[in-house]
């Protein structure tokens, strides 16, 4: 694979707070077309890149990933944002800002992927901000920063857009995970909503590893579980909710052995660590969490009143965890 650098902040940082706002609405788009790990490896090798063997991925529960072949990146965004904006228009909910998360493209910053969409809905005045530093842990970074937005705009909603599309076969696979194309939109409000956000904890470890630093990467691979356990324990302690009341633990689709280990070190029963979508979608960047929440609801594993934990992991030691609760009946997901 091509050389890349895994890096995070220059010093260890832990931020945690009890909050009370809502995930009021969301929409997810996953392409129907899928590629197997064998097909992706073949495509990548034809372009001159090297990969691990197929078995290195399948033994970790990684088999397929969705691949968008018809819609552009902007059209994927439109697919998830349009229904959310339509429901806001119906309810009269005002949006204050749009935050955009994207981890897969390079040199895209001069493009405004929602310009045409906002013009269509007469929302050109809305400011658009992009987040990059937290990569696949961006969902929880957004949760951490959202209370600051609500302190200034208590009557307005925050719209989070996440969209990733691999523009080259090498963008779909690295030594650790298989990436799928996806898009999602989440609407957060201070008052009312379907899912309540109670407690958030984010941790950033101050380490920098180049992919040629095999010793450093090996150390990271054996110690990052401690970071996961730390944010998990901190959220439970701060919230006062015992593990027995947590209905599901829903995280990013990295690989099955990793989440099995997380369950062991955190004392989470196997049937409460949600891994139902990993084999069919691979890792969906920052859409993983919300897609898995939707999937768990559709399969009857999350019901009104249930508490659940969400986890996200970013390269280099970025961890996020939040205590959330279903507070309204979902109509089969969005």
UniProtKB/TrEMBL annotation:
Key word Transferase present in the record?
yes
Residue intervals of the Beta-ketoacyl-[acyl-carrier-protein] synthase III C-terminal domain: 236-323
Q: Recite the UniProt keywords alphabetically.
A: Transferase
**Highest taxon in the source lineage:** Bacteria
Q: Where would you find the membrane-spanning parts of this chain?
A: none
- A Pfam family the protein falls into: ACP_syn_III_C
Q: Which GO terms describe its molecular function?
A: acyltransferase activity
Keyword Lipid biosynthesis, does the record have it?
no
**What name does the UniProt record give this protein?**
Beta-ketoacyl-[acyl-carrier-protein] synthase III C-terminal domain-containing protein
Q: Please tell me the species this chain comes from.
A: Thermoflavimicrobium daqui
């Amino acid at each position: 694979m091509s050389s890349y650098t895994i890096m995070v902040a220059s010093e260890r940082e832990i931020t945690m707070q009890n909050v009370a706002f809502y995930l009021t609405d969301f929409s997810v788009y996953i392409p129907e077309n899928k590629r197997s790990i064998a097909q992706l490896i073949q495509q990548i090798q034809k372009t001159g890149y090297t990969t691990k063997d197929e078995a290195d991925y399948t033994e970790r529960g990684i088999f397929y990933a969705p691949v968008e072949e018809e819609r552009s990146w902007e059209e994927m965004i439109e697919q998830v944002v349009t229904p959310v904006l339509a429901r806001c228009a119906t309810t009269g909910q005002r949006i204050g800002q749009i935050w955009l998360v994207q981890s897969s493209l390079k040199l895209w910053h001069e493009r405004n992927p929602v310009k045409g969409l906002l013009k269509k809905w007469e929302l050109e005045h809305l400011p658009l901000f992009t987040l990059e530093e937290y990569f696949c842990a961006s969902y929880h970074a957004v949760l951490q920063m959202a209370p600051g937005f609500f302190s200034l705009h208590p009557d307005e909603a925050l719209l989070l857009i996440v969209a990733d599309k691999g523009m080259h076969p090498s963008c779909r696979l690295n030594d650790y995970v298989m990436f799928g194309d996806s898009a999602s939109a989440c609407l957060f409000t201070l008052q009312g909503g379907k899912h309540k956000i109670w407690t958030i904890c984010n941790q950033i470890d101050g380490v920098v590893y180049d992919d040629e630093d095999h010793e450093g990467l090996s150390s990271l691979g054996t110690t990052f579980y401690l970071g996961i356990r730390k944010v998990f324990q901190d959220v439970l302690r701060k919230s006062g909710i015992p593990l027995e009341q947590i209905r599901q633990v829903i995280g990013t689709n990295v690989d099955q052995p990793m989440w099995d280990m997380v369950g062991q070190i955190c004392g989470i029963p196997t049937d409460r660590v949600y891994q139902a979508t990993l084999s069919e979608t691979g890792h969906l960047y920052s859409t993983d969490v919300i897609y898995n929440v939707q999937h768990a609801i559709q399969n009857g594993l999350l019901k009104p009143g249930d508490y659940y934990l969400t986890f996200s992991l970013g390269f280099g030691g970025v961890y996020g965890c939040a205590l959330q609760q279903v507070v309204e009946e979902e109509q089969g997901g969005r």
